[in-house]
Amino acid sequence: MRLNVARGATRRKGEDGVVKLDMDDWMWLIDERTLVNKTRFSKVGIGFGEVTLFFRKAE
């Protein structure tokens, strides 16, 4: 079950100053204890990073 889709931007400090990055964020509820969050980063349409996190609720 997909929970959320968010698109947005963030600003991060880089070697040459502040860089604006586009973000595409997805969340899925796998079961009642497990959530997966995947975020992809891009700049001018070129993807360059991806983070996938797994959250598990304690019993």
Provide a quick synopsis of the model:
The protein has 59 residues and is mainly β.
Produce the secondary structure layout.
Layout: E1 2-14, E2 17-31, E3 34-43, E4 46-56
Antiparallel strand pairs: 1-2, 2-3, 3-4
How much helix is in the residues? under 10%
**Globular, elongated, flat, extended or rod-shaped: what is the shape?**
elongated
Strand adjacency order, main sheet: 1-2-3-4
Total discrete domains = 1
The whole-angstrom Rg is 14 Å
Q: Quaternary arrangement of the chains shown?
A: single chain
Low-confidence sequence ranges: none
Strand-residue proportion: over 45%
Number of helices: 0
Description of the structure:
The protein is mostly beta strands and 59 residues long. The chain has one domain. Helices cover 0% and strands 83% of the residues. A four-stranded antiparallel beta sheet has the order 1-2-3-4, with no helix packed on it.
Key traits:
59 residues; mainly beta; four-stranded antiparallel beta sheet; 4 strands; 83% strand; elongated
